[in-house]
Amino acid sequence: MLREFGSNEIWFLVMAARWTILLSLLAFVFGGLAGLVLAIARIAPWKPVRFVVSLWIQVIQATPMLMLLLLLYFGVNMLGVRIDAWTAAVLSFTIGTSAYLAEIWRGCIQAVPKGQWEAAKALALDFKRTLALIVIPQAVRMALPPTVGYMVQVVKGTSLAALIGFTELAKAGAQMNTVTFQPVAVFGTVSIIYFAICFPLSMLARHLEKKLQVGTLRVQAL
Amino acid sequence: MSYTFQFGQILGYWPQFLQGALLTIKLSALAMVFGLTIGVVCALARSYGARPVAWVAAAYVEFIRNTPFLIQLYFVFFALPNIGVRLDPNTAALLAMSINLGAYSTEIVRAGLESVPVGQIEAGRALGLRRLQIIRFIVLLPAIRAVYPALCSQFVLTLLGSSIVSAIAAEELTAFANSLNMQTFRSFEIYLVVTAIYIVMAFGFRGIFAGFHRLVFANRG
Amino acid sequence: MRFSFRRLALALLPAIGLAAGAVSAAKAQTPDEIIKRGKVVIAVDTTVPPYGSLDSSNQPSGIDIDVANAIGKQLKVPVEFVTVNSPGRIPALLSNRVDMVIAIFSITPERALQVSFSIPYAGQSAVLIAPKSVNIKGPDDLKNMKVGVTRGALEDGALTALNIPGIQILRFDDGPSTVQAMLSGQIDAMGGGDYGEIYLRKGAKGEEYEQKFPLRAAHFGIGIRRGNPELLQWLNTFVYSIKNSGELDAISRKHRGGAPMIPLPVF
Question: Which CATH superfamily hosts domain C125-218?
Fold first, then answer.
């Protein structure tokens, strides 16, 4: 029953990383789409919309990601709405990611000089067109480095799904640990795999920051 | 949907919720103090230290920032005893939180250090200030003031991240919530109440940080 | 590209669809529906040897897994395994993710308010486990000790109810964490299933572990969603039949070092 931690076991962990990557991609894509809507709503020319969205983002940013997960998985299931671990994980990471990305992108959109808005107004462009044709193309440049940087947080954040029994890299590590009882080797390998995914992203973010010569918009951890 | 909300039953456990929340606050506050200390030391090491020292600090920062907190927590609690370091759950949680926050603070403080103009340091030298005085008054204080908002956001994230330490049996707020959930199965009410408590704590900490800012930085221009 | 809010909303539809599509595949209720669908989806825990663990080719293996496979064999459909941890068992059922849970699922009246249990197919006691070198004869010896348990498990309830002065109960989210805490010396003793001893004794590097005294007995049932009498009746018949045919004993001998299944009550 007990066995050594060898190449077979390392391979098992490497394969488990695909769930981490898939979960991260889903969270990033859905969170990004929702985040874009939130970011635009945050600067929309309607005050009540701005207020509600801003409040929503602040509340989500004050909520532990683990609580979102537990609430959606255990809580909502008890309510009678059926959500499986996959859906609960994707949904909570989407909600969390969208709130943080919305704030990062709002900062970038607002960093586009006011004169651009005024010039667009002088050309009789409406809010939608100004945003789409003038502001967003400039904001994307600034947004790229912190967005790539935030992907690191998304990848690491998916480890929380292990706590609701979802089998990704962190949970696979825990499983492997019960049959080998070599915590240093197992969790060391798990760390290295995470590092191998995250470090290139961090480097890319830094490279982009230098190349695009944008200021220090710092990205926060989860 | 045939679910009867029973908040009354859950709210009856308020002394335990309070106890859990207090431990969460205590762990977070201590981690903020230790984490910032680590951050300042490592940032100075990275910016002004000898090359090997700067390199070690950089490796620490990169490794911590690119691996999940949960795995760091497992390491501190389950693997450190292999080299004879045995910590109880709360201490292990505090250590892991401080190490994690330390890495992020290093990066933030370093960004602050870089924002201090070289001319300012030269001016300090011209005024005959000693090296430590220059670091403290001319470099560090303005640097921290410059990155204070980023530091505060990171502190709040540490508070929120502390919800994970229940995984190594620390008895903070989330741990109590999980225990209660296994007894009563009133999952929705429990996690909603606990989420509300976290939100209040996060806003509370933000309020305190804002007050602190007014007290310390505002009247110095 | 022209920007349009309508296009953005369309792009977001998959996300909304995902949320709405939360009701997933395993909605089959009766044995007939399971057979018609052509597979049975069963939740197992692969971190609790000898009931469930990963074998050397990283496939699920253990008593629970063999019982699950026997169900598949009887129904003549392949078994699809979904791994869960202890707190995830009830949500896995309630979310229609699985047809049944076979994962050291102790039968308790609290749980039976959420799910239905078949008659027991296995049973064991929660016991106190500690290093041989530690002198523990009964609950009184646990004074001022650190004892690890799995949150909400049988041993948690039993130890908490004993109200031993000065005892420090450390609650972990799952069994493996508790065992790991024992092996790394973070706790003086642990509560666990009597199955725990098998791999603890083998697993420890220097220290030898042993069972000190029993805490509380439990029996495991197959959990299904409530309101499903056909499936429940079929499972009861199935458990009766593998008990009677000796198949359950064979499974037990295979995974518990030659020990036959203990006598099991019915209800």
Answer: Periplasmic binding protein-like II (3.40.190.10)
Pairing mode, if any, of strands C168-172 and C122-131? Answer: unpaired
Residue in A85, A176, A179 closest to C88 by CB: A85
- Per the CB < 8 A criterion, the answer to whether B157 and B177 are in contact is no
Does C14 score more than 60 pLDDT?
A: no
Across the interface, whether the CB atoms of B77 and C186 are under 8 A apart is answered yes
Q: Has residue A66 got a pLDDT over 90?
A: yes
CB A168 within 8 A of CB A93: no
**What's the pLDDT band for B156 if we cut at 50, 70, 90?**
very high
**Count of other CB atoms within 10 angstroms of residue C182:** 25
| CATH, residue B143 | 1.10.3720.10
Q: Compute the mean pLDDT over every residue in chain B, rounded to the nearest whole number.
A: 90
Q: List, in order, residues 6 or more apart from C256 with CB less than 8 Å away.
A: C50, C63, C195, C198
pLDDT of residue C206: 62
**pLDDT band at B219, cuts 50/70/90?**
low
CA angle C228, C229, C234 (to 5 degrees): 110
Q: How many domains does chain B have?
A: 1
> Does residue A173 contact residue A5 with C-beta atoms inside 8 Å?
no
Q: Which chain B residues touch A221 with a CB distance below 8 Å?
A: 65, 100, 104, 154, 157, 161
- Enter the tokens of residue C35: 């057979």
Chain C interface includes A192 (CB < 8 A): no
Query: Which range, A138-152, A169-183, C8-22, C182-196, is most confident?
Result: A138-152
What mean pLDDT is predicted for residues A38-51?
Answer: 92
Q: Which amino acid is at B119?
A: G
**H or E segment and range at residue C193:** strand C189-193
| Cis amide bond preceding C50, omega within 30 | yes
CB nearest to A79's CB, from B66, B188, B190: B188
Q: What is the pLDDT of residue B128?
A: 87
Q: Decide if pLDDT at C119 tops 50.
A: yes
ipTM for the predicted complex: 0.87
Average pLDDT of the residues in C224-238: 95
Cα–Cα dist A114/A129, whole Å: 15
Domain extent at residue A16: 7-211
Q: Which residues of C touch B166 (CB under 8 A)?
A: 173
Backbone angles phi, psi at B31, to 5 degrees: -60, -35
Answer yes or no: is pLDDT of B64 > 80: yes
Q: Do B68 and A65 touch (CB under 8 A)?
A: no
CATH code for the domain of A24 = 1.10.3720.10
Please determine, for residue B221, whether its predicted confidence score (pLDDT) is greater than 70. no
C160 touches chain B (CB under 8 A): no
CATH architecture, range C24-121+221-255: 3-Layer(aba) Sandwich (3.40)
